[in-house]
Amino acid sequence: MTRKDNAAYYDDFAAWYERERHHGYHAHIDRLQVGVAKPLCLGKDILEVGCGTGMILKEIAPFTRSAVGLDISRGMLEHARNRGLNVVEGSATDLPFPDASFDAVYSFKVLAHIEAIEKAMAEVARVLRPGGHAALEFYNKHSLRYVIKRLKPAHKVSETTTDEQVYTRYDGLADVRRYLPPALRVEGVRGIRVFTPFAQVHRVPAVGS
Q: Which domain holds residue 144?
């Protein structure tokens, strides 16, 4: 999918996302991700890359010095603005901010859908201040989630799109290290197993700073 296609998909997806992410597995994952990012953001200038409708940003922003969310989808950003959040439209591969703008950057559920991942990582490094931290989620290619995705038939993820039409990449830790520019290094990795009522094990891979 091109950037225009991606934006159109997430615009279409925004209403479902806003409705469903408040419940069950999705809400649990959001809480875990807030727990990962929040300690890095306390009293600091922070950026969320791929903020969507602002569900995570709204939990973190009150504890920061300043907080900005970025997303390619105007539909998603409309919901975020309705929450009173400071958000801008833009791409993770071309962040519309000067060098060294933020003390911390975090991104969840986003980087696995960016084909030009090295460019996105270079942009994260560029906007971070010296000594800054990033909390970044990558999908784990050694997870049951990856096996299930490979085996199951395509299914609709919005009114106009199936999951096979959405670029999704699964990585190992060696892959992640290879994507990083010299200014970034892995300081920690966290994996999460979540048991759901559907008797499946979901693995949320490598969330590192």
A: 3-208
